[in-house]
Queue: 2 jobs
Job 1
Amino acid sequence: MRDKSILTDIDSLTMSQRLRFLFEQIRGYELLGSREHPADFNLVRAEYINTRVRFLALLFSVLTPLWIPVDYFILPESDFGMMVIARMLFSLSLLALWVKASYVFSLGHARFRLVVLMVMPALFHLSTQFILGNHLDDERLASYTFLPFLIIAIHCVFPLTLKEGCLLAFFTIFTLSLDEVVQHQVFTLTSLNNLWLLAVIMGIAIWAQLSQLHMQLKLFEQATTDALTGLLTRRSFMTQAESELSRAERYNRTLSIALIDLDHFKAVNDTFGHQGGDKVLISFAKQLKDALRTTDIIGRYGGEEFIIVLPETPVEEARKVIQRVLDTCRETVISHDNKEIRFTASAGLGEVLVDVQSSIHYVDQALYKAKEDGRDRIVLAAGERELLAE
């Protein structure tokens, strides 16, 4: 059952405030643009878009020449040869896109290939309009005017943000309208009627794009984030950390790693119950998010253990950041069932060297030593000097 206080708060809001609240609840900002999307989600979406681009490019490269026999029986002999050339060029271009798009390196690459996929059939449609010319009034050639609607409908199969969908729609409709612009027929009744119909179908396509994107974001969040704390799962953390290590090696940058464990957490669960323990975990996760940068990678490593990778941060600087986190823990008081919960944390800290897994092993040993030395402190991994909390 929903909290009555929340319902009361909503009832007291103005219409604009309610709309803003609803927008934030569905995380609408994630549907507007990709700036707030996680980097690994962008790569997953890029691969998804690229796969569909390749499939559609191959499909239409095969189907387009198969219509040539129909052209032979329907088109005037004077137009048949030009139509065959147009079809073959279009088919070969799509085949080249299928081959070229074998690998995807970024979301930008995937977007570019998607634009190419949409513009190419639009250009093919323009060529058919110029080839057929006045013959388009023939009822037998009505099927040659359906391609724009098919192109717009294809937009539905891609998970795009509102910004991406609108830009792609503009490029597509603009290209499809070039023949009417050249012939100065943009403001005729027929042209406006077609443009209105294209816009309606495009609106439905953009809605489908946003629905797909919203579902993918939800599934990605469920697969990669811890349900209780909202931090990365262990598997997702390792994937991002390995990627960050590759980047650090490429540009010769420092990468620090910290493993933090909440002290005497079992005693917290035994004393205050699991709900009290959950409050501590949620509070500590929030402290980590507040203290660290958006570029830092934070994950729940298991139980009451948390792991952090700090890109472009020397160990000495990372120690100051982790020390602030430990200080905040010591000062935090959590209310639960009219009782106060206090907790501290210990940390092992070091630099990521050969690989992430080995580095975790070393900082885990440092964390174990921090526990042995009395908890509520930081210990550097083997080969570094120990740093104790005041």
Note: The chain has 15 helices and seven strands.
Job 2
Amino acid sequence: MQKFLSGLDKLILISAAALPFFMAVAPGPMNVFAALLIISFLLKKIIKHERLFFPGLLGLSLIMFFLVTCLSIIHSLKFIDTLKGGIFRLFTYILVFLAMAHEAKDKRFLKWIIISSGCGLALVSIDGIWQVATGKDFIRGYEPVLNIGLARATASFKDSNVMGIYLSALSPLGLGLSLYYFKGKNKMIMAALSILSLIGVVLTYSRPTLLAVYIALLFLAIVKKDKLIIGGLVLVTLISPFAMPRSVKDWARGLEYNPLRIMCNDDRIAIYRNTLRMIKAHPIIGVGANTFMKNYRFYKEYPEYRNVVTIDYIYAHNNFLHMAGELGLAGLSLFLWFVYLLFKRGLAIHKRLKDGFSKTLSLSLLACIIAFLVNGLTESSLYYSRVAVLFWYIAGLVLALDKFQTRGEYRSTASTAGLEGVLDDAK
């Protein structure tokens, strides 16, 4: 039995490490590794008779959120869609969250997570650069998206904004470690990776992605009291309106420099207004998990905002409105409660950690969560099957670092010892 459990540990490590990298390649292998992670994790818990959920309010908030998702089936237009794409999908995401929180427990595990995430960032960014330069990405043959005269990179993703969600959710990891932990050669490697990922972010021309990375970096700088980075961000804010391409300036002028219209576009604002009508009609438990797109056409106002005509089958392009539409204000409130408790626990873990590496890593992971949520202000990123699991994956890692508080496994001199030395296997 011990050999079998050891084999499960290895499979969990391989699956968890492979997930962020293969997310950059295609949904097929990503889903395979997610399934292997979940199955291995559940088998291990069953054999060892260990509990799944965290005790206390954090676990309670997650259980209640899942129960409201189940209850939303009452208003569902199609029960099978709510069961399969709503309840079951959320259950798998929660299991990924729990697997990462329970199983990321040594240096070896974290080493492979960081390497895999870095390779995924590099792959997507290089692919995006290649796509814009040649007209096709080298992984799946996708062409760049053309908007207002700009070639927007998508890499192996079908949309520039989805590529942006992936990059913005993982790039704070490299930014935090390169700025506030690594030294020498390691710092140069991680800084090069961070710059490469920022180039990828810029090539998406996704406003929410740029804002997400900006706020994540600002969060890191404020917590670390880094006046140089804060000043640099202020300078970027002042210069960026003048450094934009001519087509972007003309487009902004056409929107009367209205910040809401620039960030969201008129079509998104129209969708938000229609979504509010949906929420008003079903304020408690919503229209049913995974049925927003099927219900949307029934709540369109006529004429729509600024005479925009939105299609009948569409995402809300806002995580929180999308969630309120499907799960009602009850579901949204419970999710926000979970996020609040997650950040409260994450900040408490960060405060108690003494080792420089684990302390910086915990802060960087919180910045990743912030970037994902900020991007979700204009995207339904929690509902895009290609990238939604990233939120739960990173959230699990935030809690996993609680196990490193008293172990003293990271040496303070590791920052000059090379990446392998920094994340050496525990002896």
Note: The CA atoms of residues 96 and 393 lie 6 Å apart.
